[in-house]
Amino acid sequence: MFFELIGTIVAGAAAALIVWALNRTLKGRLPKWLIPAAAGAAMLLATISSEYGWYGRTTANMPNGMVVAQAMEEQAFYRPWTYARPFVSRFVAVDRASQRTHPARPDQRIVDLVFYGRWTRTAKVPMLFDCAGARRADVVDGIDFGTDGEVLNAEWRSLQHNDPVLKAACEGA
Prior knowledge:
The chain has about 170 residues and is an alpha+beta fold. It folds into two domains: about 1-60, no CATH class; about 65-170, Lipocalin (Beta Barrel), CATH 2.40.128. The chain has helices at about 1-25, 35-60, 165-170, and strands at about 65-75, 85-100, 105-115, 125-130, 135-140, 145, 150, 155-160. Strands 1-2-3-4-5-8 form a six-stranded antiparallel β-sheet, with helices on both faces. It has a two-stranded antiparallel ribbon with strand order 6-7. The radius of gyration is 24 Å and the shape is rod-shaped. It starts with a helix and ends with a helix.
């Protein structure tokens, strides 16, 4: 966030400097308000560019085995350009490299879900999926596993069969 702020300030200063140099070259023929207007416009464009580029930069730098399961787009009245094209403010990725199964229960698997947010910390949460039953359970204290891989004391939540996170976690099951 700090580097984005610095980048925005630098963009504004660079635009102001360019307009100032152009005005000086033209011997003061440009209106005086053009320098701060150019700085403001450059800062706004830098901010918008950073907002729309965040998702692509973040997904490009994810480790191997991570698959984006669901992306949430955002619109806001104080960002009127988002009504023309919403931007991704957060998304959920499935870490397939973390997948754990029991040989007796191949349709059940534990995978790490990674929650990314534009201005929030990344959170990694282990989640238990029953691919055949289209349900999930949080891996929390109190869950136990039997010797045959049976899940004990889990609070299962039903999901739709087309749920994007379930599909990503169970692909290949």
